Amino acid sequence: MFDRKPPIDPQQLQAYATQLKRNIPAFRAHVEKLAERNSSVAKNLQEYKKYLLKPVEPPNRVVKPMTGYSKGHVLGPNEKYYQIDDCAVIREGGQMRLIGYTFLKLRF
Predict the structure, then answer these.
(1) Residues forming a β-bridge with 39
(2) Number of C-beta neighbours around residue 69 at 10 A
(3) Closest listed residue to residue 96, CA positions, set 72, 65, 68, 67
(4) Most buried pick, 22, 34, 61, 103, via CB within 10 A?
(5) What are phi and psi of 82, to 5 degrees?
(6) From CA 4, how far away is CA 18, in angstroms rounded?
(7) DSSP string covering 5-61, please?
(8) pLDDT per residue over 32-53, tens digit each?
(9) d(CA 88, CA 96)
């Protein structure tokens, strides 16, 4: 489930999305089991849920476009995107579109 790559053929995108939807309950069960066995995972999960409940505030700095977004082959190497905290976004039709989000950060 974690190593699955998105399809190259756009015709297969719907089947790919359907499979991801089926995997969500398995992933949630996996995370819940981890939280039951590991108190630090449970604590991080609680902190993350609190973080998600906070209202989104725009950054108080100028966000400059970047290129070379490499996660999942979403963009070409020269296409512009913006990194705002944990979100990667693009401009599309006068709006911002989310193309990536960092859900978990491993702390070593």
Answers:
(1) none
(2) 20
(3) 65
(4) 34
(5) -125, 135
(6) 13
(7) PPPSSGGGHHHHHHHHHHHHHHHHHHHHHHHHH-HHHHHHHHHHHHHHHSPP---SS
(8) 999 999 999 999 889 888 888 8
(9) 10
